[in-house]
Structure formats: structure tokens, C-alpha cells
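Carbohydrate ABC transporter substrate-binding protein (CUT1 family): structure, please.
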Amino acid sequence: MKDKLSQGREFLLDGIESGRFPAGSKLPGARDLAAELHISFLVAQHVVSSLEQDGVIECVSRRGAYVRHGWENRLIRNHLVIFQPFREWIPGMLGFLAEELPELRFSRGFRRGMFELRTTFELQEHRDDYMDLSRFLPECIHDEGRFFSRPFRGFSEPDGRLFGIPFIFSPRVIFFNRGMLAAHRLPAPRKNWTWEEFIGLIRTLRRHYPAERVFTYFDRPYFWMNFIFRAGGKLIDRLPDGSTRVCIDSPETIRGMALLRELCTTVYGFVSRGAEVECPFHNGDIALAMADRELYSVIHHSGFDDWGTVPLPEIPGGRNVTTQATDLICVRRECADNALAGKYIRFLLGERMQQYIGQRRYGIPILKQAAQASIDSEDPRDLLFLNEMNTMSAEYNVDSPPLTEIIYGGVSDIIHSDRPLEPAAAELASALRTILKVRDEIRRKKN
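Here you go.
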């Protein structure tokens, strides 16, 4: 049972998040609040003053309390924020949270929380906003052998600072619709299929279906980095000394960008930035989709069963690498309650929560025992995710929003233009090397 102060705060915060008390509106007075919640007038006053201190409301002398504009940007000391707060597994988690960690409040309206679950790319981009979690590993993990270690790569600094702990993870694979292929006497993709076979299949399917029903191309780093990785390329490389090597103009990276142009024009007939919304594979409406295990969960609950999975196509001379999808446990640097941070990490890494998320088949749990129980050993479509685990890479290597905008915005512009690839890549790489040289020199002077 939460104390009266917490109950009062939650009443007002729930009302603000739901729109009952919109920005700029006047809140109930302390006496009205006390009467409605059956709390004392003194506690009601404390509720209002605490939210004023948090910057959520503004108290105006002799006029009352009002919801501040921009309240959603405030950072509240006990808020838990998840990047997609309406997932089907959230209600079950909230039940466990109420039992085991009632100190935390799950928020759907605030953009930041002191405690968060974030995605691979987003967390790497904002890594400096989060505290080092390495100190919590001994007390939260105990036996490291119980957890997968590979998914941790990409979330630590050369000095050992750990800015995120994987909660669940997944490699990416190709899903294919057997019925749509069979309708045109097309064979199912084989395990070691090549880029030429992949493009050839898309080209054939385009004779029978519109682009949006063949394959969804997304202008997102998590999508197109798969093909740059598999061509043997990368964009930047973080070195052990903390400096950064630019690889945008390497032959392998340029080759990957050329393949992406080929893919895009094969799907759409011209260079396009692709779809904003994916055609739902689980409805049986699309022939091919590249996705992580979350899609397996969606399909499993939909009843659609005429489908299969294969690894991403091989690119001769490239590498067998896919981008890692990860939901990561992270804590803001502003957190002053290490005890609560430790509880939060233990809650999500605990067997109860890991087994639950495994039962929902939402990604692969980081706890090995939960992962083994989650994967259907009788279904080769699901086993593929376990087999592809060693191909995962989370090495986007971005470490700030400005750097991300320059690198990924620049690369995206090159891919989705008609500019010659080599001079365009060389121009971007040269500019980036200059920026990074200056930045690294500034950092060295500060240290």
C-alpha cells in the first residue's frame, strides 16, 4: 500500500497524463483534493508543493495551482519510462512492479524517466545521459554464467563504464509468406541464399504485387546498417583509446550503400526512402519482412501460420553480421538513489520477470534459463533466432545526438540520392574526420 503522499501525487499525475488536467488548466485546490482522496489537508498541501518542486505544476498566489506547459519534459525521481509503453506485456509487468517495487511509478506521458528501458540505437546515441551500471553487476547478476554475455557488447566504454544492461535482445532475420510465394510457384528461400537470389525473388514478386506487399524498406539505421555490415563495412569504429576512426568511404561501406540502392530501386522502381508504416506481415499481407523476434511473438498470437524464417542473404566477400535489437535497462545520471537503482535492475533481471517476458516471446530473455524455456525447440522458425545469436552486432558506435545526425543523416542522404557514391562518401568522411579530430583534441585537453 502506497502512502498518502504517493497516492495524492499519482492522482494528479494520472490526471495530467490522461488529459483530465491539460497543460495550463487549474488543478483542484488542496481542500478539494483532501476531500476527494480522504487525506489530510496538510498532506494535500504537501502533494501540491512536491509537484511544484518537480516543475510539473505552478502555484500562483491567491489563484491556485496550474499544470505547467511542457510538463512532459520534466524528470521525476521515481518515474519508470519505457520507449513503447503500450506493449501487450506491459500490464503483466505492472502487476509484478506493484508487488515488488511499489516505489516506482510507471509513466506513459513523460518523455524521460529516472529509470528507463531504451532501444539499442537510442541509448548509444544518448549514452552520456546515463549512469555507469557496472557497479551493480556483482549484486544484481551474481553468477555471470547464468546470463548471455554477447548482447552486452556495444554498451560499455573503453574504461569499463556500462551505460546499459540488456533486458531482452534478438538478431534480425527474414520472414517469408509461404502462401504468397506458392501462389506464383516460387520456392521458399534457402538457408544460405545469396544477395542475387534475394534481389531476384523481390524482382519476381514485384511482377505480381505492389511494392508495399513485397518487402518493406525502411530509412532507419537499424534497417540499412544490416546490409552495410553484411557487405563488410561500417560507418565509424571506436578505438580502445577512445578515439574514433571513420570508415564511411571504405570500399566495403560504399559497396553496402550500392546494394541498398539496388534493393530500394528493385522494390519501388526508383530511389525512395521507403515506408513510414510497415504492412502487417502477421495478417498475411506481405511476402517478405526483415524483423527481430518481436514479430514472431505478434505472429504467434495472431493465428497466421503459413510462414517461415531464413537468415539474411549472404553477400560474397562480406561478413555474417546482423544488427542487434535490444531493450536496455538504463538509469539517468541524475539518479541519487543507488539503492532504488539496484532494486530496479534486480527486478528486470530477476527470474520472475525474465520468465514472464520469455513466455510472451518478446525477444530473447538475457537470462539463459528463461531463453531456453522461451524458444520453441520444435519450431525451426523460432530456433533460427537462437542460431543467429552469434551474428549480432550492436556496434553503431554513435555517442552523441550531433554526431548521429551528421553520420546517419549524411549516409541516408547519400544512399537515397543519385550522387556518385565514392565522391559523396569521401566528402562526408573528410568532413567527419575534421569534426572528430577537433572533438578528440578537446576531450584530451579536458582529461
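Notes: The mean pLDDT is 93.
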